[in-house]
Structures are given as structure tokens and as C-alpha cells.
Amino acid sequence: MPRSVNSVAKRARRKKVLKQAKGYFGRRKNVWTVAKNAVDKAMQYSYRDRRNKKRTFRALWITRINAGAREYGLSYSQFMGALKANDIELNRKVLADLAMNNPEAFKAVVEKVK
Length: 114
Prior knowledge:
By secondary structure, the chain is mainly alpha-helical. 74% of the residues lie in helices and 0% in strands. It has a single domain (9-113), classed as c-terminal domain of poly(a) binding protein. It contains five helices and no strands. It is rod-shaped. It comes from Flaviramulus basaltis.
């Protein structure tokens, strides 16, 4: 009995991967084996970096809060400790936005905790 192959499904799988590889350079965009490896690696990077993005944004917010707090003679850790002691529950994202885009509101927060 001859072997049954499902060419329709096989073609669909390959089309899906080649569509994901659209825009890649050289053979990565149109040669099945190269494109499959490139897409697999890209998916690994995207999974990893969705988590790394959260870390990098938190680091950016901390840097901005630190710069804003130092204008008023406080370090980042002193400022955050004072916020906790005064029961002010603003997260780092909001504080960084205030420090960058709304300095008078950030100053008000600093004066409240001093």
C-alpha cells in the first residue's frame, strides 16, 4: 500500500513560516530550511524580550525618579523610603512620568514626603 502524504497541510505549514519570515534578508526569507530556523530563533527572542522589556522599563523609571529626586536633595532610596513611610502609593511608572513631564507635581510629592 503506498504511503499517504498530506501535501495540503505541508504546504500550509510552510506558507505560514515563510509569511512570518517576510522582510528577512537573503535566503532567510524564501528558503524553507533557512527561514524555519530564522523564524524559530526570532520567536525565542520575542518570548525572552517580552520579559526583558519589563526589566528595562523599570530601570528607566528608577533612573528618572532618581534624577528628579536629586534635584531636591534626596537620593532614590531615601525618596522611595519616605514615600512608603508616608503611605503614598504611587508606582514607579507614574512617578517617572511626573518627574519627566510634570515637574511641579513631582515637587509637590517631594515636599509632602520631606
